[in-house]
Amino acid sequence: MKIIDRLYKSVEEKGFVCVGLDTSLDYIPAKYKKDKSISEALFDFNKEIIDATKDITAIYKLQIAYYESYGIEGMIAYRETLKYIRDNNLLSIGDVKRSDIAASAEQYAKAHFEGDFETDFITLNPYMGMDSISPYEKYLESGDKGVFVLLRTSNPGANDFEVLKTGDEELFYTVGDRLQEINEKYIGENGYGPIGLVVGATHTEEVEKIRQRYKDNFFLIPGFGAQGADSLNVYKLLNNKNGGVVNNSRKVLKAYMEHKDGEDNFGKYAREAVIKTREDILANESL
């Protein structure tokens, strides 16, 4: 089964929530860190979150910066977390946002699609041009791997460049159209290809057009949770409750902090936060 079809099936069975394991030592209860190395504390916390949510989470996303910031110890935790996800037959996104060309891009692909840091999907930044995307294509051809490429991001600075006009339309549509040309060559049995798009849910006036225009692309949808995107925007970026995954990181990882017994039950409260994310978005079904 192609990786994009595995993701479609995972969303169908478990819902569309993507848990972001953007784990900082500051998020981990003090007593859970006691007498542990940095790598052990990060991994053990991640493992608890995964175990508590794996039946209701479509995929896990690891933002690599959180691990790189702790040096070798952090990258050991990154490696072990990805391995644990893989060993449990779950899916992962390495949020690495690579952007380079030729041999350098080939090495990035090898680093994150093979070996210690192997993951199912990675994120890419396309703004060096299509030769920053093409080196990954051999992994897409096989159907074993996929990418999520930045299209319309949720951050305030997205408007600095993404909406600049190229002809009659904004730049991000030009980017999306070029990516769609590659994606169409590798459509899976559920109607989606391995080139997904990162589409933030903070741009109300655009979400319906983007969903319609890129109907064959799976979306990674940031902005919900700590960034405060409207749940209706998120719902519109999905396609009949599939075709996308909705990332929630801090609101899940730090959910226990809102409860007196949280430090002893952070997995439980992470699970409740995942369920609430799903419920908040599905509340728009009747609208």
Helix-strand category: alpha/beta
- DSSP helix fraction: 40-55%
Q: How many discrete structural domains?
A: 1
Kindly provide the radius of gyration, computed on alpha-carbon positions and rounded to a whole number of angstroms: 18 Å
CATH top level class name = Alpha Beta
Strand order in the sheet with the most strands: 1-2-3-4-5-8-9-10
Kindly estimate the percentage of residues that lie in beta strands according to DSSP: 15-25%
Task: Look up the CATH topology.
Answer: TIM Barrel
- Number of helical segments with 4 or more residues: 13
Alpha carbon gap, first and last residue? 35 Å
Average residue pLDDT? 95
Number of strands: 10
User: SSE order in H/E notation?
Assistant: HEHHEHHEHEHEHEEHEHEHEHH
Architecture (CATH level 2) name: Alpha-Beta Barrel
What does this structure look like?
With 287 residues, the chain is α/β, with parallel strands linked by helices. It has one domain (3-283): Aldolase class I (TIM Barrel, Alpha-Beta Barrel). 43% of the residues lie in helices and 17% in strands. The strands form two sheets. The protein has an eight-stranded parallel β-barrel, surrounded by five helices. It has a two-stranded antiparallel sheet with strand order 6-7. Strand 8, helix 10 (207-213) and strand 9 (217-221) form a beta-alpha-beta unit. The model has no long low-confidence stretch (mean pLDDT 95). It catalyses: orotidine 5'-phosphate + H(+) = UMP + CO2. Residues 16-265 form the Orotidine 5'-phosphate decarboxylase domain. It is an enzyme of class 4 (lyase). It holds the Pfam family OMPdecase. Its EC number is 4.1.1.23.
